[in-house]
Amino acid sequence: MIIQFPSGQISKLGIVGAGAMGSSIAVAISKLGLPIKLIDKQPAALEKGLQRIDNMFAALERKSEGRKDLNSTSAASLDTKHRRLLIQSTDKFEDFCNLDLVIEAVNEDIEVKKSIFQILDRICHKKTIFASNTSSFSITQLASFTNRSNQVLGMHFFNPAHIMSLVEIIPGLNTTPEIIATAIDFVKSLDKLPVKVEECASFLVNRLLGRYINEAIWILQSGLADVKTIDDSACQMLMPIGPLQLRDMNGLDIGLSVARFNYEEYGERFRPAPLLEIMVERELLGKKTGAGFYTYVEGERKPQNINPQLQELISLAENEKVASRVNLPPFDPMQLFLPMINEAFLLLQEKIVSPQDIDPALKAGLGMKIGLLEYAFDYGLKNCLSKIEILNKAYGERFRPAPLLKRYVWANKTSAVI
């Protein structure tokens, strides 16, 4: 099978990295009916990835069987078996020489990615498109490791890639319009939502998510609200899962690594809460270690209880210096989302993303019940700005109002589309 795209045909694909993302991307792409090469430098990781792929297809088949439609069940069973056969593992990069598209999905280590792109550039034919699933690194930097920077871009899938519909498309400075158009059409062919995002640290969704989760930890550390109040408030307003439980699910160590990266790139408003640092030092990393903000029982998805060590850890964390905490109102759930709203206007100000793409991306990538901008406009931008200014006086740089947000308020804008 051959699929025609703006930059040419795509009939053979490759994925580098058989971890959670690489294996899930392989399952997502298999629906196109195209052969896929999967490689991982670690034999054990490759074997584990193939087992993970088998488990995903088994789950998809069980889901189809649950519909109790014998005809569709039979078709689904044949479909999953056929799709599984399309994914072939290899331990030789030479097998990637004639591929049309290669997606890099290894760990967020710039040196590892550099080595992979240099190998691919040497082995693959000159028209091969290189895409990275990086969630934060500069695409222009990754492209600089090759002699084909015009054919490199970001294709950031969300976990699990075979289920989540959002894919951020991030061009580098030299990526051609034809390659960008091909990536967008390719994602659409997977029945997913492509959102074009200009280069910036953590791109669109993770940049906004970072502000939201970090604020939740600051609120907890400052004693304004407890874990249950924070998570329940977020779910009652906009989210399918609370920020602290989400941090536990994804791993506090990963969260801290991303928070530090964003802090280096964006400055004070992204400064990680000291409580997060202390919890990682104590190896309270969330679900994978059995305890984070909550405690967990092995084999169960939901948390068991609030971590009883938290109060001690909060007392150890450096208290944030605030000028007038005594004058602050009680915990307001909007404090969780105001940093996100403010950051969204900074994104618009920097022309990172089109205004009409923010809400669909957040609903698809985070499962938000209502789009962030839609919620902000319904709540009232003037009200948002007023609360941000109060918090700015108390907490400083973390709540410095976005200039564009001020201008929208002054102009009485009722929509994010200018």
Written description of the protein model:
With 418 residues, the chain is of the alpha/beta class. It has two domains: 3-196, Rossmann fold; 205-410, N-(1-d-carboxylethyl)-l-norvaline Dehydrogenase, domain 2, CATH 1.10.1040. Helices cover 50% and strands 11% of the residues. It is built from 17 helices and twelve strands. The strands form three sheets. The protein has an eight-stranded mixed beta sheet with strand order 5-4-3-6-7-8-9-10, sandwiched between helices. The protein has a two-stranded antiparallel sheet with strand order 1-2. Strand 6 (101-104), helix 4 and strand 7 (129-132) form a beta-alpha-beta unit. Helix 1 (20-29) crosses helix 2 (43-65) and helix 13 crosses helix 16. The radius of gyration is 22 Å and the shape is globular.
